[in-house]
Amino acid sequence: MKFFIDTANLAQIKEAHELGLLDGVTTNPSLMAKEGIKAEKAIMQHYKTICEMVDGDISAEVLGTGFDEIVEEGKKLAAIHENIVVKVPMIRDGVKAIKWFTDNGIRTNCTLIFSAGQAILAAKAGATYISPFLGRIDDSGWNGVQLIEQIADIYERQGFASEILAASIRNPNHIIQCAEAGANVCTCPLDSILGLLKHPLTDIGLAKFLDDAKKMG
Ligand code: E4P
After folding, report:
1. Does the active-site annotation cover 87?
2. In testing the pocket of ligand 1, which one of 2, 3, 4, 6 has its CB within 8 Å of the most ligand atoms?
3. How many other CB atoms are found less than 10 A from the CB of residue 150?
4. Ligand 1 contacts CB of residue 187 (under 6 A)
5. 165 Cβ contact list (under 8 Å, min separation 6)
6. CB–CB of 175/188 below 8 Å?
7. Cα–Cα distance between 31 and 191 in angstroms, integer?
8. How far apart are the CA of 109 and the centre of ligand 1, in A?
9. Which ligand 1 atom is nearest residue 31's CA?
10. What is the pLDDT of residue 216?
11. Residue nearest to atom 5 of ligand 1 (CA)
């Protein structure tokens, strides 16, 4: 399973990258706004900076919702760097645009996936990645991990090539559950990635080893 970081914060991207395990980055308009990046020029520059920091797939989201707007915006985003993956919402014109991007050699990430039916449509359109939002599904009383399992099963049976990019991760356990459920990629906040490191018995064990080693000296 590949690890992406889900942020537009450069310090967090740097910290995750320095761990040596980062395979890519996802952003969305809310994450960009959180960093105070709003003007089109600044957004384009920010994506370029991220591409220069991390050698992996970088999802850049379109803001348009009509076919023509999505295609124009996506072409501009894809021209920033070869690692850009154009992130397109799961709406009717989005699906149509994903098919257009597929036919024209531009890679896509179909975002805001909340059902197996949406995952089938995105795969049929040729999306490189599809992003089920499992945390938001859990928040609304459904089971996000079950959706990942269902999509993984359908894709395997049908031979769909889209990669399942589990998104809206809320905690380290979500990452483990995504690995078990067959996600190809997990895009996570930095805290959830670092949370995988932690176990109290590791800390207790290490303290004892270091203490015993001191006694020997
Ligand atoms: C996916 O690519 C989105 O950026 C993200 O995972 C959404 O997560 P949230 O539900 O925590 O906003």
Report:
1. yes
2. 6
3. 17
4. yes
5. 4, 26, 109, 129, 130, 131, 132, 183, 184, 185, 186, 187
6. yes
7. 15
8. 13
9. 4
10. 78
11. 168
| pLDDT at residue 114 greater than cutoff 90 | yes
- Ligand 1 contact, 167 CB (< 6 A): yes
* 7 in contact with ligand 1, CB cutoff 6 A: no
Q: Are 124 and 158 in contact (CB under 8 A)?
A: no
Phi first, then psi, for residue 7 (nearest 5°) are: -165, 160
Please check the confidence at residue 217 and state whether its pLDDT lies above 90: no
β-strand partners of 6: 26
Q: Locate the ligand 1 atom nearest the alpha carbon of residue 135 and give its number.
A: 10
Q: Which of 40, 10, 4, 42 is nearest to 23 (CA)?
A: 4
Instruction: Name the 3-class secondary structure at 173.
Output: helix
Q: 187 C-alpha to center of ligand 1: Å?
A: 8
Q: Has this prediction a pTM greater than 0.85? A: yes
CA-based angle 83:78:34, to the nearest 5? Answer: 80
pLDDT tens digit sequence for 55-106:
999 999 999 999 999 999 999 999 999 999 999 999 999 999 999 999 999 9
Residue 41, pLDDT above cutoff 70: yes
Choice among 34, 38, 75, 87 that is catalytic: 87
